[in-house]
Amino acid sequence: MLATETGMLGQVLLVSLALGAGLPVLFGLGLRATAWGTGGDAEEHAAGEAPRPHPLGRALGVLCFALTVAGVLLGITVVVASGLGYEVSLGGGPLLVEKA
Amino acid sequence: MRAAGAGSTVGAVDAATVILVLVVVVALAFDFTNGFHDTANAMATSIATHALPPKAAVTLSAVLNLVGAFLSVEVALTVTNAVVRIQEPDGAPSPDLVQDGGAGLLLIVLTGLVGAIVWNLLTWLLGLPSSSSHALFGGLVGATVAGLGWGAVHWTGDGGDPDGILGKVVIPAVASPVIAGVVAATGTWFVYRVTVGVAARSTERGFRWGQIGSASLVSLAHGTNDAQKTMGVITLALIASGHWTSTTAIPLWVKVCCALAIALGTYLGGWRIIRTLGKGLIDIAPPQGMAAETASAATILVSSHLGLPLSTTQVTTGSVLGAGVGRPGATVRWRVAGRMGVAWLITMPAAGLVGAATWFLAHALGGGVLGAAAVVLVLVVLSGAMYVRSRRDAVHAGNVNDEWQEPARERRPAAAGGVR
Q1: Count of CB atoms within 10 A of residue B186's CB?
Q2: Which residues of A touch B68 (CB under 8 A)?
């Protein structure tokens, strides 16, 4: 049983790390890109030389935020679906599978 | 009242019915303490960073707990099977425990719940987050040992899925804070790295929303997980006393009552615990709050999805500590963390002792209605005493975010007749 548990805990750690640390970092990157895209006072800068805005940064920011929201929606889907007796499967095929 | 029928059997059934009512009321009381004990898990960080005003935070959390409790249709009827042997694998009560109209089993459940509530209230009084599930397991184990002996305790699994006290309580308890801590520390460290050079003013709003979103996810997950346990316990009691037969469904009124009890408890807010978790461990900043709650939500959801549910309380505490470790230069108050660790260690034995003591009390009084009533009276008196004590240094929405200082009772010996 200990071996099974260690394996399961390792899995929990890896997946949680990907989602639980990945999403905040993605969100941070979104903030970063948006600030770069906005320019001016959104970024820290020396007095009198405000950075120029970069349209690409805004687009990247939107992309990061969209991915973060998608991650959170996935989380909510997992909660709601498992409550209603479905499992979320990400291995291709239908997204929601009725639990055995 | 039931119409009187044939002699002693009816007498036993009636006694069981009265005890059943007490079990249901006490179970709902446990569900209520479960709610207010765990508000902190979801909302402490958002309250500490002012992402949400205190009242708004507990209201949001309560609503999501309510929604979560209704979302789950899975039947958690086998909840006690993790630690004791009073049920069959399918959730039906063990046949030899229900021959007396269920009174024997009901008494174990009742005193187990009393042990859990007393421990939940005591840790709340001390402002310590501790797992409500462990308290429930501890109380049940204590009552079972008292009533049926050590042989009825389920120590380890049978080599397959994690089970028993070792697999469902001890290992997860050690692993939860470590896993959540690593996740939160990693998240925090990277978040600070990638937002270097961005003006604080423009990150504030973003992190605020990030915190609200992640905290909401934790609340929702809590509602789906925790309310079910009480539903399972009440349904077990109903089956044992012959008021319900299905082991695959839960009566609607049980679901509604449990959902309302946990939501009401959450709304009331365990402010003392919110304060410890939000202000006591680290001085939390918005990026840390967001990283901590996301780490908690991810760990809770992933672990229950993979079949090894981890305690929400221990996960959240680990996350908050991790968020402190992950921010270079931040202070972590390890003394406070150490006190929590001690509380976790003694949660099961302490709740178990109360469960066992109250079982012996009820047994000494004949194990019937008189015994059950005496146990409930003990619970009411202890709860009342702890509530009265809590008023002496009340923590509420208005002072939950005050500057943290080590509790006065710890400094008193050194400053006898001095500060205070």
Answers
A1: 22
A2: 79, 83
DSSP H helical segments within B197-311, as ranges?
200-240, 252-268, 271-275, 286-305
Alpha-carbon span A14 to B163, nearest angstrom? 22
According to DSSP, residue B170 is labeled I
| Mutant choice from B67, B194, B204 vs A, greatest count of A C-beta within 10 A | B194
Contact B206 A30 (CB under 8 A): yes
Q: Residue B376 above 60 pLDDT? A: yes
d(CA B64, CA B169): 26
ipTM: 0.87
Count other C-beta atoms under 10 Å from residue A51's C-beta.
Answer: 17
Contacts 24+ apart (CB under 8 A), B167-173: B167/A1, B167/A5, B168/B82, B168/B83, B168/B137, B169/B82, B169/B83, B169/B134, B169/B137, B169/B348, B171/A2, B171/A5, B171/A9, B172/B303, B172/B308, B172/B309, B172/B310, B172/B311, B172/B314, B173/B131, B173/B134, B173/B311, B173/B314, B173/B344
Shortest CA gap A76–chain B (Å) = 7
CB contact under 8 A, A5 and B306: no
Helix or strand run (H / E) with residue B354: helix B334-364
B373 three-state secondary structure? helix
Q: Domain total for chain A? A: 1
Share of chain B above pLDDT 90, in %: 57
The model's pLDDT over A39-83, given as tens digits with 9 standing for 90+, comes to 887 777 777 777 888 889 999 999 999 999 998 888 778 777 876
Q: How many CB atoms neighbour CB A58 within 10 A?
A: 17
Expressed as residue numbers, the domain containing A8 is 2-98
Q: Which of B229, B230, B236, B228 is closest to B91 using CA atoms? A: B236
Of A5, A13, A38, the CB nearest to B162: A5
Distance CA B189, CA B167 (A): 32
C-alpha–C-alpha distance, residues A4 and B56, integer Å: 42
For residues B336 and B127, give the distance between their C-alpha atoms in angstroms, rounded to a whole number.
10
